[in-house]
Design goal:
five-stranded antiparallel sheet; two-stranded antiparallel ribbon; Protein kinase domain-containing protein; ATP binding; Ser/Thr_Kinases-Pseudokinases
């Protein structure tokens, strides 16, 4: 059997294991046979509460994620500066001088170890201008961190607050291109929001890894879907064009959560009254029947058409 075929067999087995993980099943992780990889310990790893960060790190580095522990300048890794959903984000530095972002988990337990295994492997497979790159992973302060490029302009929410002249439609185009790419892999993001999208020093939007959850996500047994991503994309677009979080009229998050769970849709904001095509598109993203929502590809086609329309007003907030 050729080396290439062996590699494909290994990755097919890994994909099968990851599919089982997504279904919440208990699995055995077998160290994959990858040509050229030096594997010191051939073993099967049962993911339980006894599995350590080092165990997961050793397994993942035999797949595709480079182990950057020795390349990380640990003396120049600061404390948490941002909440990243499942984990915190710190700024660090590699030995070659590059500034990087380090995403870690708040705590290590069985559920989070399984989530980490899925996120690392899935993220390592992506390659798109509008999806944040994964350099690798490292062992830092007793846990695993994901190492990615540092985004000078921070997240999209902060960037738009500081740059009211930014072309908002261009940002929506870039984000939709990234989501369309992920859905075609196929991959479900599950956490699309302005605070989880970052902006490079070149002004490029890059999608990173409860408020914008779709109504069906509050029901027992619900799982992340493309349709839920589309709902969140519509809410993110609303924030992009208005500079305000959806349902900002509510004083407390629980009120917004209840409104979403009941199927309440946002009302048309003043910024979009003169953009009926865009407002109609966003409303389609929030359809209470998930399979009636447009695909990312369809949304991309419509926003590109809007971008080429010379008769619309400026897509800035100034």
């Amino acid at each position: 059997q050729s080396p290439g075929a062996a590699s494909e067999d290994s990755r097919a087995e890994i994909d099968s294991q990851l599919s089982a993980l997504r279904k919440g099943q208990k699995i055995l992780l077998k160290t994959p046979q990858i040509p050229g990889a030096v594997v010191q310990h051939q073993k099967r790893l049962l993911i339980t509460s006894a599995v350590t960060s080092e165990d997961i790190l050793a397994y993942l580095t035999n797949i595709r994620c480079p182990d950057l522990t020795q390349s990380l300048d640990q003396a120049n890794c600061g404390g948490p500066i941002q909440d990243g959903g499942f984990g915190e984000i710190c700024q660090g530095r590699l030995n070659d001088g590059r500034i990087v972002a380090l995403k870690s988990l708040r705590e290590i337990n069985r559920k989070r170890l399984k989530y980490l295994a899925r996120e690392l492997y899935s993220w390592s497979k992506t390659e798109h201008d509008n999806v944040l790159e994964l350099f690798g992973l490292a062992y830092l302060r007793g846990g695993i961190v994901m190492v990615s490029p540092w985004m000078e302009f921070g997240n999209l929410r902060d960037y738009l607050k500081q740059n009211r002249s930014a072309n908002r439609l261009s940002m929506m185009v870039q984000i939709t291109e990234g989501i369309d790419y992920l859905h075609n892999i196929p991959m479900i993001h599950g956490d699309i929001k302005a605070a989880n999208i970052f902006v490079s020093k070149e002004g490029v939007a890059k999608i990173g890894t409860m408020r914008w959850m779709a109504p069906e996500m509050f029901r027992a047994g619900s799982a992340h879907t493309r349709e839920a991503d589309i709902y969140a994309l519509g809410m993110t677009a609303l924030e992009i064009f208005t500079g305000k979080v959806p349902f900002s009229e509510y004083d407390h998050d629980i009120q917004a959560i209840r409104a979403v769970a009941l199927g309440t849709k946002p009302t048309c904001p003043p910024e979009l009254i003169r953009q009926p095509k865009l407002w109609t598109l966003l409303n389609k993203c929030w359809d209470l029947v998930p399979h009636e929502r447009p695909t990312a590809k369809h949304i991309l086609s419509e926003v590109l058409e809007l971008a080429g329309d010379d008769n619309v007003d400026s897509w800035t907030l100034v």
